[in-house]
Design brief:
This protein is α/β, with parallel strands linked by helices. Helices cover 39% and strands 23% of the residues. The longest helix has 20 residues.
């Protein structure tokens, strides 16, 4: 990565990290998706249940194989819909944020189990990256609408029953102290 671009991304993430800390999130900075996956695994507890929402970055064979070493709601084996419904009560939910505003609001798009994780899970781990930073929530909703075909394609590839178009917004992490961990990658994720 060109030095100037890397510097620019790091400065943007420094500013965002300060905002997120003020909003009560737990922050973990990483440089790559691989490091993000390792960080996520380090935050899990073998005695607690784990669910995974819709995410291109986290739905790879190696990462899912490592999740299977935990008490994982494995929707990739058996009755996917039944397992996704059961996963709504997981102790920890791992999801990918589609966009994050400069004010620290996180927009989530996915199947019902992805957006419902915001309410059901005891702990949330959310992957975002510098390329997903946007000005405000309205810009996020516009981008989601622009990329509707992408979300429908992802839902189809993941064999979701619905269109994978449930949207959730996390305003801040203060209501649930130390409940939401945000993994921020310098490397781009998603769109």
């Amino acid at each position: 990565m060109e030095a100037n671009l890397k510097w620019y991304k790091e400065k943007r993430l420094d500013t965002l990290s300060g905002v997120l800390l003020d909003k009560g999130y737990l922050i973990h900075r990483v440089f790559s998706v691989k490091e993000a996956q390792e960080k996520i695994l380090s935050l899990l507890n073998k005695d607690k249940t784990v669910a995974l929402g819709d995410s291109w970055e986290l739905m790879n064979k190696d990462f899912i194989g490592k999740l299977r070493e935990f008490n994982f709601f494995d929707r990739f084996t058996g009755d996917s819909e039944k397992i996704k419904r059961e996963s709504l009560v997981a102790d920890t939910a791992i999801i990918e944020g589609e966009y994050i505003t400069e004010n620290g609001q996180i927009l989530i798009v996915g199947d019902y189990n992805t957006s419902s994780a915001l309410f059901g899970a005891e702990n949330l781990i959310i992957l975002v990256s510098e390329n997903k930073m946007i000005k405000n929530v309205n810009v996020g909703f516009d981008k989601i609408k622009e990329n509707e075909k992408y979300y429908k394609l992802r839902a189809s590839k993941l064999k979701n029953v619905n269109e994978g178009f449930s949207i959730g917004v996390i305003e801040n992490g203060k209501k649930f102290a130390k409940r939401i961990s945000v993994i921020i990658s310098t490397e781009n994720t998603g769109l």
